[in-house]
Amino acid sequence: MDDAPGSLTSLRSRNRLLVIDAVRRHGRISRVDIARATGLSRTTVSGLVTALLAEGVLTESADGAVPSTARGGRPATPLTLNPEGGGLLGVHLRHTDVRVLLADLSGGVLGEHHREIDVDHRPDEALEFIADTALDLVATVGRDAGRIFGMGVAVSAPVQSRSHTLSLPSMLSGWTDADIAAHLNRRIGLPVHVGNDANLGALAEWTFGAGRGVDDLIYIMLSDGVGAGLILDGRSYQGATGTAGELGHIAVVDGGYVCRCGNRGCLETAVGAQALTAAFSRTRGPDTTITDVVALLAADDPGARRVVTDAGRMVGRALAGICAMLEPRMVVVGGQVAALGRPLLDGIREVLGDRLPPAINQGITVTGSVLGDRAEVFGAIVLATRQTSARLLAPHFDRTPPDAGSGRG
C-alpha cells in the first residue's frame, strides 16, 4: 500500500497517532473528547478507536464513565492505553552515564537499568551496554518480544531533525562517526530513533509531567550539560536543523572557561553540575557532588544557598530574552541540578521579574520537573511511540528480535 506523504495510508497512520497521543496526554478520555482534542470527525475517531481496541492498543477503562464535555452529553466510557498492549524502550545517553528503561504503552515502568560510563569517550562500551540491557529487560519482564515496538534514544548533543543523526561536527567528540540508530537496530532488531535529550525532556514533561495541559513551555535541562527544549503551540520546536534550544552554549561570562563546544564562557561552564560542585572544592573537597550540595542546602548553609541562587540568576539572564520573544506559559527546570530546588528556581524567577515586562512575566510559571532524572528517558519513549506507532501499532504485527544470546561479547 502507498504510504507516501499525502496518501490515504499516510493520512490514516497520522490519524491513528493523533488518537494515541490524545489518549496518552489525557490518561482517560472519551471518544467525543478525542475528536475535540484532535480535530478529527467523530466518525473517523470511532473507526480508529474500534480498530485500536481490537488490536489491544486501547482498552475501555473499568474505572467508570467520565463526563462528556459536549453539552447535554451522557457520561461516556473512558478509553486508556492498554498496559498489556505492548512496550517501548527508552535510553538516555548523558555525558557520564546511561539509563535504559522498558515501559508499557501507558508509560508504566516495566524494568530499568542504569550505569556510570564515560559516554563522551567510550561510545562502543555505551552502545553495547544499551543493546545488552535492552535485550535483558525484554527477556526478564517476559513480554512478547514481537510487541516491543521500538526504541528511542536521548543524546546530549544536537540531532538533525530529518535524519535523526548527530549534527556534525558533533560536540560528543568520540561519536562523530557513530550511527547510533543503525548500530542498535542491528543488535536488537527494533526501529531506533534518536533525539536531543533536552528536546525529549520537554516532550516528556509536556506529555506526562509538569507541563501537561500547557501548550507553550520551555524545559531547561541542567545536568553535566545544559540544554533547553521548546514546546510551542503544542508542538516540539527544534529549528531548521535540529539545534534550537542549545541554551548551554550561550556565552554569559566574558573570557570564561573553554567549553566543549569550543567557545569560552558558555552557560554550561558556569551552571553545569561540574561547575557548581567545583565551587565547593576548596571548602568541601574535590569529590563534592550535587547530592552533597543538596544536603548543604537542607542544613541552610549560606555558601550553598549563595552559589545555587547565583546559578539560578545566571540561567534567568540567559532565559530572559527567549521568554520575551516566545512568551511561554511555563518554564520547567529539570536535570540533575534541578534537585537543588527552591534557591535555584528563586534565582531564575528573580531575574525574569527584573528583565521581563510585567505583562509577560506575570503569565510565566517557573517550576521544577515532575519526572526528575527520568524526564529524558521518558521523552525517548514518547519519540519511539510517535515514530513507530503509525506503522507498527497495527494488526498482525509480528517481529521477533534476535536471540538474546546472539552477538554478545
Automatic annotation (TrEMBL):
SUPFAM superfamilies: Actin-like ATPase domain, Winged helix' DNA-binding domain. InterPro entries: ATPase_NBD, ROK, ROK_cs, WH-like_DNA-bd_sf, WH_DNA-bd_sf. It comes from the Bacteria. PROSITE patterns: ROK (PS01125). Coiled coil: none annotated. PANTHER family: GLUCOKINASE, ROK (REPRESSOR, ORF, KINASE) FAMILY. Belongs to the ROK (NagC/XylR) family. This is ROK family transcriptional regulator.
